[in-house]
Amino acid sequence: MSRIVAGAAGGSPLVSVPGDATRPTTDRVKEALFSRLESMNMLSGTRVLDLYAGSGSLGVESASRGASSVELVEFNDKAAAVCQRNAELVNKVLGTKVVRVQRSKVEAFMARAAEAGVDQWDLVFMDPPYPLTEDELSAVLELLGPRLSTFAVVVVERSARTPEPAWPESLGRFAEKKYGETRLWFAEPAGE
């Protein structure tokens, strides 16, 4: 069973998406990831975007640890319903609506955000489904670049057997870490 590791809602159990269409981030990977993000001061007061959110565990963990706003973007009906339940749990603990769920395809959400001139995000999680092609992932990364704050961090989670994402000119990888069958890539806005 997945849980919120730390923060205001630490220890709270999370609802999981039924079936095997999603692969939740393990608590071990989540603990290591958030330890790194906390050491970079990337949680308190940040604006977080969780794309291909699955159960929303990374986004709600961010909210529990002090993010000021979190958007969970998920297209699958069952997964979006689970995101909503997990968001409600954390929002109730926090006493305010920090986490919002967007039932949408990621590309459509990003297009709407660009049209609306949505504020820029400080921290972005991307854990796309395995069937998503490298070209599709690159296209989303390209859309993401202009929507990032100056010191933003993008974390892409993929299978350890998957090649490194093709980063657009607007993003540069600064680290990667392998945890068993999971690999995390960290990127930031490229310098001028």
Describe this structure in words.
The chain has 192 residues and is of the alpha/beta class. The chain is 32% helix and 27% strand. The chain has five helices and seven strands, in the order αβαβαβαβαβββ. The chain has helices spanning 27-39, 57-64, 77-94, 106-116, 134-144; strands spanning 47-51, 69-74, 99-103, 121-126, 148-159, 171-179, 182-189. A seven-stranded mixed beta sheet has the order 3-2-1-4-5-7-6. Helix 2 (57-64) packs parallel to helix 3 (77-94) and helix 4 packs parallel to helix 5. It starts with 26 loop residues before the first helix and ends with a strand. The mean pLDDT is 91.
Per DSSP, the total helix count is 5
What is the helix content?
25-40%
Output the helix-strand order: HEHEHEHEHEEE
Q: Main β-sheet: number of strands, strand sense, barrel status?
A: 7 strands, mixed
Widest sheet: strand order? 3-2-1-4-5-7-6
Number of strands: 7
**Helix/strand class:** alpha/beta
Low-confidence stretches: none
The geometry reads as globular
Our Rg estimate from Cα atoms comes to: 15 Å
The overall pLDDT, averaged over residues, is: 91
Estimated share of beta-strand residues: 25-35%
Distance between the termini: 44 Å
Which helices and strands appear, and what pairs or packs with what?
Blueprint: H1 27-39, E1 47-51, H2 57-64, E2 69-74, H3 77-94, E3 99-103, H4 106-116, E4 121-126, H5 134-144, E5 148-159, E6 171-179, E7 182-189
Parallel strand pairs: 1-2, 1-4, 2-3, 4-5
Antiparallel strand pairs: 5-7, 6-7
